[in-house]
## 1
Amino acid sequence: MKKLNRREFVKTTTVAGVAAAAAPRALFGQAPAVMTKGVKPVVIASANGNASKDADGITCVQKAFTMITKGSDVLDALVAGVSIVELDPNQTGVGWSGLPNAEGVVQLDASCMHGPKKRAGAVAAIEGVRAPARVAQLVSDETDHHLLVGKGAQDFARSMGIKIEEGLINETARKQWLEWKRRTDPLHYLDPKKRAQAWYDTGLQMVREGLIDGEHFWGTINCDAVNARGEICGVTTTSGLAWKIPGRAGDSPILGAGLYVDNEVGAAGSTGRGEANLYGLCSFLIVEEMRRGAHPKDAAITALKRVAKNTIEKRLLNEKGQPNFGLSFYCLNAKGEYAGVAMYQSRYAVCTENGPQTLQTEALFEGRANG
Ligand code: ASP
């Protein structure tokens, strides 16, 4: 199969509404998408979007890209893509197998936004479902609301025909939770401040010891895409912070924080320390920066600088006085330009006519979060 070089691709795709994304066809052997706006389709995601695979060995970004270039609705494609990650039993930061809250209960958050429809949906702290992104999409499509939480979200999912499973927890995650409990709570409860610190230190210690995958102590997937017609959508889905206080919702289900899409401008979404992102509503900020003409990379750097400036608590700073946590943004604009940008260098996934790739992010700071 011949891959088109850039010039050939541009020539093919700009010659008309005609010809559609020839390269995707070259790449995946599928029918072309209709090109009416001349945008090159792009799917961007956190790195796990090119790690977990379905039974056919296809990753999230690859799946979404293939569906989009075959003409599927962009959000349908993204929800199908992220479900590969949500259903992967080895993912301890996304979907049913995510690390549980402090009581050993898995509570999931997800949101989605459909640019052309100008609609969005989200669920927070939902229990008993394996793949919450689809529930968020149903909130968007079937209700007049955009955020359902806890038992209400679960009842809604059940009413939509989604299977609810009591006590849904992955065996590995349950064992890790027990270990955390044993280490942090020998006398049941420390005072709240010490407990929060113990939580953080213990979790990171477990990462250092290799008990928890560092990428999944936090762990989320954000996935955004633009198709050849310039239609933009996004989705973010997570099990949130490991060992969180029950009921805690992070940035992922909050529009403007974990995800924001404006069909005229672009999309942005996040992974990492949700609380830091929530204070700045950074996905909204990034989209607004792009609206003013900033490239996705510069827009995300502006957001990360804002987060760094607003991080003043000592417990959240490393020896250099910089944030001691990770926060990453995945952004694309209506022209199909994109960037993965992080507080400290990390990785992100992308799928274009060149196929799926895992790339290094741009970073605000050199080195690592912990100095
Ligand atoms: N942002 C997510 C949250 O704070 C966690 C993550 O991305 O790992 O819930």
## 2
Amino acid sequence: MRVLVVGSGGREHAIIWKLAQSPKVDKIFCAPGNAGIMQLAECLPVKAEDIDGICAAAKENSIDFAVIGPEVPLAMGIVDRLEAVGVKTFGPDKNCAQLEASKSFTKAFLARHNIPTAAYSEYTDKQKLLDAVGIYGYPMVIKADGLAAGKGVILAADEKEAMDAIESMMGERVFGSAGDLVVVEECLRGIEASMLCFVDENTIVPMESAQDYKRIFDGDKGPNTGGMGSYSPSLVIDEALQKRINDEILQPTLAGFQADGLKFKGVLFVGLMLTEEGPKVIEFNNRFGDPETQSVLARLDTDIFEIFDAVCDNRLSEIDIKWSENRAVTVVLASGGYPGSYRKGIEIKGLENFLPAPSSLTDEHSTIVFHAGTDVKASCGKGSTKNAVVTAGGRVLGVTAIGKTHEEARERAFAGVQKISFDGMHYRNDIGKLNRPAE
Ligand code: AMP
Ligand code: GLY
């Protein structure tokens, strides 16, 4: 099998690392990839959102099977397009991709099928929204309906912040058309958890649970990011709670898909708030999460290609998905200044301390570095290394480690972090500690 993975983050690096372990996969391509992915796959210079370019590259390289990482090409209908040119593709079609691309679509779906979530109302008129300010009290949860690179949700602490947020979404249109419709929600309180699930038309199978850290600074302070770290399994989901999540959320979601004619195939990422009343859905994403995937896949013992292929054929129920008992922790190393502006092209030191792709993680090789925003730069200037790996994005690397206990995984991940350096490198020291919400 010749497999093409679309995307360029740590999530895609982790997916490719698992695909490389499959005896069924002969060659892996990635569009566009990064400096780490390059060691396992042939990188093609095509952007993930360039659907025409991806379809052409798939044909040119005789691709048999494609896996889509990010949400934007999914929302653009990349799966429909690749399938139309004969490439079997893992990911939801354009119709199902609305579950991430429109918060209003998802809220209506959840309400229609009585799946627990926050109360909400929606607005297309700025004045009506301004009149409704504080409708569920504060913080006021204000969400742009469309995709906004993870920045479209604002938790406004008071009336002034709420008015400012509304003005920027609907007046200045900082998220463009994504903010023409705004969803306002009741603020849920509790601990968050991420439940990634494999889904085909007949079956939903949760992966091991995970937790991520969205804020930039320790103690969950500062602005939201794409995710500064993760661990798996969640420290708060026990068997009884997992059963509730399954019975009250996952099975009703599958039944809802079937009732609504949504032929969802791929990964459904269920963002949960574990409230005093029980688990509630915060959001759906229609793809693997980043950086949850790095921690979750570090524990997957089953051939990932077999799972992807089964999902495409509606054979998911036949696959026995196995997970290791190990715990996993991922610490993200970010560029100084992220999620604001930051410099690129800074040389990264210390990567030689790690095996690029251990075939599985063991006590001896417990740690793997997944690349996100990295690139290779041919030597230039005095004192620079030949073919140096340099920074090329906000989130640069993720150090993932496994251990028999959560603490062991955490210590190993931070020991790995100490071996890497680049100018301005920033990471959170509290990844792996229980992330209680700030009151
Ligand atoms: P989303 O992009 O929908 O995942 O929202 C980003 C983050 O905002 C979530 O991970 C939560 O931390 C927070 N959030 C979103 N909706 C709510 C809500 N209704 N109540 C409390 N927090 C929320
Ligand atoms: N880590 C959250 C996300 O991937 O959306």
